């Protein structure tokens, strides 16, 4: 694990692309966070001094580090890029600079360097690929963030160059073979923990398997709000509390490991019977 203080441009430098993995929750910031963020950016532009935005944790997906997944920090990065996009369109001279740093430019590849999750990708790309400040209508939270900043950004109080030159982040980089699950637990120990369902969903379905995810996972676990609420509900068995999702996958694992097909030894069955970390049993 390595950590460095970097500018927003350095985070995306040298052709690096960052992906929001499947298990990450959708973008959830609301007006309260947007107002606070906007006020902080206005203060930054007045003082023009280095401003610490926080730490982001990235994990290498390739040995050369050109592809990374974001473990923590997607809310801040998403908000910052939406704000910068609006400013780049308001300040015509910065539009090219924005594209240079946040869009891939090799050959026919014009993809965005920050690739959002399945849930938010369409909305995020719609904002980042805008060529003018259009009116967008959607109940997606990223579109709502765009509309908020579009309506509330004061060009006299905010300056694109001042923000990108003074914002700094601590980039904590994890190697491919490091245990991100332990880091997830640490990150979420004081907040809302990632659920077993969210972790398993990312483990089972790759980004290239969206149709399989829609056909297998969604009809059972995410068919509607009632289904989602049911599977997220916590049940108690003795001193143990776990979600219905976790209980289901623990029971499924117990059934599967009895099959001679998998040749699970009695000692291994004893280990897998423990439900302290269902995700680690699958992983």
Question: Explain this structure to me?
Answer:
The chain has 283 residues and is α/β, with parallel strands linked by helices. It folds into two domains: 186 residues, no CATH class; 87 residues, no CATH class. Helices cover 48% and strands 15% of the residues. It contains 15 helices and eight strands. Helix 3 crosses helix 6. The two termini are 21 Å apart.
Radius of gyration: 21 Å
What's the mean pLDDT score? 82
The biggest sheet amounts to:
6 strands, mixed
As laid out across the biggest beta sheet, the strand order is 1-6-3-4-2-5
Shape by Cα distribution: elongated
Low-confidence stretches: none
Task: Provide the β-strand percentage band.
Answer: 15-25%
How far apart the termini lie comes to 21 Å
Q: Helical percent range?
A: 40-55%
Domain tally: 2
Structural class: alpha/beta
Order of helices and strands: EHEHEEHHEHHHEHHHHHEEHHH
- Helical stretch count? 15
Number of strands: 8
Tell me briefly what this model is.
This protein has 15 helices and eight strands. By secondary structure, it is an alpha/beta fold. The protein starts with a strand and ends with a helix.
